[in-house]
C-alpha cells in the first residue's frame, strides 16, 4: 500500500510540475518590441497595447526551426522554454504538407523498450549541446512513459497537430541546441528563459 501511494504521489507531483511549467511557458511572456525577429517567447503583438497575453501569444509567429521528414511531414518548433525546475519544454506543430495522408514513422518513438511499450510518441527526440558535448533525451515519468505527445499514428493531408517534448535543461550558459527527430532533418533552436 505504501509503495502504491508513493508512486501515485510522484505521478501527481510530476503532473503538477509539468502543468505549472506549461502554464508559465504560456503566460510568462513579455510584450513585443519593434524587432523584426522577436524572441521565441515574446508576445509580438503591437496592437494589443499591454493587454493580458493569450495562450497563443506565448508562441512566436515565425518558427524557431523547421525539420522536414518523410512523406511531406514537417515539424515546426515554435518555442523552447527553460523552467526553474531544470526542464526544457519544446512546443511545436507536426504538419502534413503532402498530398495524401501520412503514417507517423515508428522510429520517432525511439528504440528504447520502456518508451515503445507506451505507444507511438516523439520519445526518440534529442537535444544536442555541441559546445558542452552532451545529448539530452526526452524525460520519462516514473512508469517509463515519455514526457511528449503520445498516440500519434496518421496525419491527414493538410492536418496540423500541436505537440510537445520535455528534456532535462542544459546549463544556463547554453542557449543554442540542435533538435533531432528520427527520420527528420535536424535544426538549431534557441532556448529561452
CATH first level of the domain at 58-190: Mainly Beta
In terms of quaternary structure, the protein is: single chain
CATH architecture of the domain at 58-190: Sandwich
Global mean pLDDT:
77
What does the main sheet amount to? 4 strands, antiparallel
Explain what the structure shows.
- Residues 51-62 have a biased composition (Polar residues).
- Residues 1-28 form the signal peptide.
- By secondary structure, the chain is an alpha+beta fold.
- It has a domain at 58-190: Immunoglobulin-like.
- 16% of the residues lie in helices and 28% in strands.
- The protein has helices at residues 2-27, 113-116, and strands at residues 65-68, 73-82, 87-96, 102-103, 126-129, 134-137, 154-155, 160-168, 176-180, 187-190.
- The strands form 3 sheets. The chain has a 4-stranded antiparallel β-sheet with strand order 1-2-3-8, covered by helices on one side. A 4-stranded antiparallel β-sheet has the order 6-5-9-10, with no helix packed on it. A two-stranded antiparallel sheet has the order 4-7.
- Strand 1 and strand 2 form a beta hairpin.
- Residues 26-60 have low confidence and may be disordered.
Amino acid at each position: 500500500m505504501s509503495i502504491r501511494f508513493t508512486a501515485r504521489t510522484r505521478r501527481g507531483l510530476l503532473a503538477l510540475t509539468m502543468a505549472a511549467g506549461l502554464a508559465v511557458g504560456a503566460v510568462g511572456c513579455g510584450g513585443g518590441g519593434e524587432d523584426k525577429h522577436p524572441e521565441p517567447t515574446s508576445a509580438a503583438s503591437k496592437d494589443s497595447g499591454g493587454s493580458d497575453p493569450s495562450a497563443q501569444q506565448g508562441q512566436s509567429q515565425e518558427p524557431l526551426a523547421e525539420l522536414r521528414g518523410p512523406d511531406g511531414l514537417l515539424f515546426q518548433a515554435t518555442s523552447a522554454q527553460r523552467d526553474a525546475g531544470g526542464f526544457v519544454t519544446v512546443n511545436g506543430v507536426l504538419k502534413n504538407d503532402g498530398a495524401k495522408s501520412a503514417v507517423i514513422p515508428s522510429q520517432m518513438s525511439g528504440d528504447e523498450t520502456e518508451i515503445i511499450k507506451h505507444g507511438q510518441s516523439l520519445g526518440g527526440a534529442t537535444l544536442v549541446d555541441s559546445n558542452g558535448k552532451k545529448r539530452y533525451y526526452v524525460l520519462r515519468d516514473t512508469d517509463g512513459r515519455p514526457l511528449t505527445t503520445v498516440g500519434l499514428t496518421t496525419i491527414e493531408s493538410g492536418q496540423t497537430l500541436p505537440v510537445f517534448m520535455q528534456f532535462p535543461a542544459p546549463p544556463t550558459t547554453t542557449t543554442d541546441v540542435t533538435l533531432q527527430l528520427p527520420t527528420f532533418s535536424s535544426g538549431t533552436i534557441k532556448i529561452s528563459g
